[in-house]
Amino acid sequence: MKKAFDKTYEILTTYTLSEAIRRLLIAFSFYLNSNQTYYKIKRFFCRLMNDDAFIYKRYFDIFMFILVLTSVTILLYDIKHNILPFFENFDYYFVTGVFLIEYIIRLWVYNDIHKVVINEYEEANFVGRKFSLRKVIKEIILKKWEYMRTPFAIIDFLAILPGYRGFRIFRIFVIFRLFKLIRYVKSINTFIEVLANKKFELFILLIALSFVTFIGGAVIYVFEAHANPKIHNLFDAFYWSLITISTVGYGDITPVTPEGKVLTMVLIVFGIGFISFATSIIVSAFTEKLEELKADRVVREAKSMNNVYLLCGYSNEAEILTKKFKSENQDFIVIDLDEERVKAATLKGYIALKGDVTDRDFLKKLDFDKISKIFVLTNNDIANAFIVLSMRAFVKKEIIALANNEKHISKMKKAGASYVVVPTKATAVLMSEYIGHPITFEVIDAILTEKKKAIIDEVIVIENSILDGKLVGEIDFDKYKLILFGVLKLTSCSLFKEAFKVDENHFYFNPPFDLRLEAGDIVVVMGYSVSVNYFKYMVERSSV
């Protein structure tokens, strides 16, 4: 800090005022550009103002929503009543102050001023000209003005003015405090966004409505200006025309001439047409937006879960897997391009989403920090390979892919699949087992389908647990009413690597009694689900 102060003092005493300002501005800009604390603070406020997925923004929006309603209530009550000094001070100092600070923060996070200075400095050095302070100031003002003239920025600015109630004309801007609610209520934002997508159609409708209103008002004025005592001027005529077209019909102005009554009937018919047209535009806009809204809802649900499985494609194999996951209370998301399959998964109560998992923009919406495994399960091997390739380029997660043809296994693995499953091969093995050993097949079928509540499951050896460092022969599996099926030794286990000099995982079926278990190994056991779950519980409990 002292060095910075000394450097500043040196610049101010060495150079002219304008040159000193230039040098200090450049030095400060480079300081901000390299200051991580500054970036963290700015990023926090940027997310607080704009990122709907940021948890603190939800609390901020609720706070601002309550504050806006409170301030509007105070201002409306103050019109015909004398409010207590506490509420007047609360609105003048606190509410207006918060609105002003919010406006300044939004203006601040809109862009980086220091980058404008750095760009000008680098450009000036590159072309060999003098650093232009005027150009920098102009560009900064233009950038900030770009934000200040946006609709929401104008609303934010005008919402500050009612706090200065000493100027009575400013009280009319209380309506802009109500408009501020649009920023903090997501459903209103969605509605405006939907209408914005149909702005061309709505603009055409507005032009047609204005034209018919103008013609109707002009004609009724010609017919009834002298015959109808309620029509005094063109404004009354246009007012009547608009009320008639909207089919509201207050009845305060009614035609008295035959020509005027005929015109009324014509305008009512036009009005019904306009209302139908406007309704169809809004309905079609919401229909188009529906899939996006569903996707946002699914993404929000997924972000609230942990250890999620992502199923790409809702094939027959995926349907079997989802039933399994559902019974085990495993969270999962189904994604498919086919709307019918997505609907079928949704009807079963699953979280399903229509989307293209090969689209990078779509993948960015998913929170892959919460996704632990990815299953690629479409019925098309080419599509599966492309999905695996897209996923592998995007994330480094475990990917299990489905291959309908053994020839495609190597392609799937080259694309990045961790494991490739061939259902036709598994089916053939089971069929041959049934033909040669029907009783054995019944046993396997009972285990796989859990008809007798018998399952095969994996138990991970946790560090410092009852399994860690033990020999297989030292573990009493009979005590837990389990049968040891096998042990998967991982290459990450140091003793295993040193003893066998291998770099690949190795599975021991019916392992020897002198095989030592290490943290990270996977023990495959067979037994009733209650026994397996109890054994897992004891392993986890003993590690604590």
Summarize the structure.
The chain has 544 residues and is of the alpha/beta class.
The N- and C-terminal alpha carbons lie at a distance of 47 Å
Using only C-alpha atoms, the radius of gyration works out to 36 Å
The geometry reads as extended
Going by helix content, strand content and strand pairing, the class is alpha/beta
Poorly predicted parts: 493-503
Q: Can you summarize the main beta sheet?
A: 6 strands, parallel
Largest sheet, spatial ordering of strands: 3-2-1-4-5-6
- Domain count: the total is 4
Helix tally equals: 23
**Which percent range describes the beta-strand content?**
5-15%
Q: How many beta-strand runs?
A: 10
Mean pLDDT: 78
Approximate helicity band: 55-70%
How would you describe the overall organization of this protein?
The chain is α/β, with parallel strands linked by helices and 544 residues long. The protein has four domains: 35-184, no CATH class; 199-289, Orthogonal Bundle (Helix Hairpins), CATH 1.10.287.70; 305-421, Rossmann fold; 453-542, Regulator of K+ conductance, C-terminal domain (Alpha-Beta Plaits). It contains 23 helices and ten strands. It has helices at residues 2-14, 17-33, 36-50, 55-77, 85-109, 113-127, 133-148, 151-160, 174-179, 181-184, 186-197, 199-224, 234-245, 258-303, 316-327, 339-347, 360-365, 381-394, 409-415, 423-436, 438-449, 494-500, 529-542; strands at 308-312, 332-336, 352-354, 371-376, 398-402, 419-421, 454-460, 483-489, 506-509, 522-528. The strands form two sheets. A six-stranded parallel beta sheet has the order 3-2-1-4-5-6, with helices on both faces. Strands 7-10-8-9 form a four-stranded antiparallel beta sheet. Strand 5, helix 19 and strand 6 (419-421) form a beta-alpha-beta unit. Helix 1 runs antiparallel to helix 2 and helix 6 (113-127) packs antiparallel against helix 7. The two termini are 47 Å apart.
